Amino acid sequence: MQSNLVRKGLLLVLLVLAILTVRLVYQRQNPYTVEVFATTGGWGYSIVTNGKLLIHQPTIPGQPGIVGFASEDEAKRVGERVVEKIQKDKALPTLTNDELRQLGVKIP
């Protein structure tokens, strides 16, 4: 009788530990994804959070005209930097020309 009670107690403890582990893993997941896409002028990126579009950036931010990123990789790097800024500042970020150059973007 007592061993049955011990088994149920251990099972309960294991169940609670499993639930806590799943919760911790879920909380650590990044809710933002960067999706890169081709445009007529090069490449752009979108930032999606929880299935909703947050930012759609078909051109190099802050630049005049309709000039996309030169490569898929450039657009991805800038999108990832924007996500970092959003997570840090909890606001929609801006990027300076210096930051874009640091990320390897050729400013026209």
UniProtKB/TrEMBL annotation:
<protein>
    <recommendedName>
        <fullName>DUF4907 domain-containing protein</fullName>
    </recommendedName>
</protein>
<dbReference type="Pfam" id="PF16250">
    <property type="entry name" value="DUF4907"/>
</dbReference>
<dbReference type="InterPro" id="IPR032593">
    <property type="entry name" value="DUF4907"/>
</dbReference>
